[in-house]
Amino acid sequence: MNEIAIISDIHGNLEALKTVLDDIEKRNIQQIYCLGDIIGKGMHSEECLNLVKQNAQVIVKGNWEEFISKGKESFPKKKDIERYEFLEQQLSKDNINYLKTLPFFYEFYISGRLVRIYHATPSNTIDSILNIDTLENYYQQFLSSENIKSKEIADIVIYGHTHMQYMQKLYNRTLINAGSVGNSFDIFRNAEKDGKIENTITVSYVIIKGIYNSMNLDDFISIEFVNLPYNIEKELVQNELNIEKEEYAKELQTGVYRNVEKYDKKLQNVGIDISQI
After folding, report:
1. Confidence (pTM)
2. Nearest Cα to 252, choosing from 152, 185, 207, 193?
3. What span, in angstroms and rounded, lies between the C-alpha atoms of 252 and 235?
4. Distance separating the N- and C-terminal Cα atoms of the chain
5. Mean pLDDT computed over 127-155
6. What is the CATH number of the domain that holds 115?
7. Average pLDDT in the 3-31 region?
């Protein structure tokens, strides 16, 4: 039996990353695959990247890795230039060059299923497929694109980017979001309806278990969602130096995405008025 830990969206949160790596070690899981966004937002991008490089067997690029790979001259907006310079100060030149080499996707067979992993969608690292979305958007996640060399339709897709852990079954296929190690969200929030905030502001990752490289659909397979508490206040000790310190602290402490309004139109397309949730 083989176990693979799928981690994503660490975002420079060293305390969260150490928590997840400790848990993976305790479980004696030998394989770690990372879905990108190791860097950005927090104060420990260099340390997090070095730890992931040391421990993960597969790393695909996220939108933050793509961001730093473009170069400062690519960004016309002052805010993006400031973010670039802030991140560039944290990372060594060797690591910036390393991030430019990361693949877009990775795929493998486990217990007869073709599993494909990438950061956001088959087409790019920035579009968001939410935990409530259209069937067509869900289905597109299984398909190939110009960035996916394989032309097969995947049986299982595991992605990240939206920081919300979930699993959706459709068309005899399984779509999984691994959640976020260091920056977990819930975009559906209401003061009267909300449960305990500790249900959201956790380290989140996924374990897939089965027979690696097996083409036999009768072999055992399982998916486990893991959520762990970690020391948020310790992570925020150095946050005074963060150029977006208020936004970052609020996300870690409350699980509220700083740009949640960007999902308004997308949710309206599936009949949800985010102001009325």
Report:
1. 0.97
2. 185
3. 9
4. 43
5. 95
6. 3.60.21.10
7. 98
Q: How many C-beta atoms lie closer than 10 Å to residue 51's C-beta?
A: 17
Question: Which CA distances in Å does 66 have to 36, 101, 159, 168?
Answer: 10, 10, 16, 27
Tell me the two tokens of residue 114: 């073709």
How many of the other CB atoms lie within 10 Å of CB of 262?
11
Q: Which domain holds residue 253?
A: 2-276
For residue 125, which phi and psi values (nearest 5 degrees)?
-100, 5
| Domains in the chain, number | 1
pLDDT digit string, tens, across residues 205-220: 999 999 999 999 999 9
| pLDDT of res. 132 | 93
**To which H or E segment does residue 245 belong?**
helix 245-254
Element (H, E) at 267: helix 264-268
Instruction: Output the CA torsion 149→163→78→103 (10° steps).
Output: -20
Q: Is the dihedral of CA 83, 163, 269, 272 positive or negative?
A: negative
> How would you classify the pairing of strands 31-34 and 221-228?
unpaired
Give the whole-angstrom CA distance, residue 154 versus residue 107. Answer: 9
Backbone angles phi, psi at 161, to 5 degrees: 75, -45
pLDDT of residue 178: 98
b (16+ CB within 10 A) / e for 14-30: bbbbbbbbebbeeeeee
Q: What is the average pLDDT across 201-207?
A: 98
Q: What is the pLDDT of residues 92-129, one digit of tens each?
A: 999 999 999 999 999 999 999 999 999 999 999 999 99
- Which residues are bridge partners to 105 per DSSP? 118
Q: Where would I find the beta strands (DSSP E) of the chain?
A: 2-7, 31-34, 58-59, 105-110, 113-118, 156-159, 166-170, 173-177, 203-210, 221-228
Q: For a pLDDT cut of 70, what percent of the chain falls above it?
A: 100
- Structural tokens at position 250: 């609020």
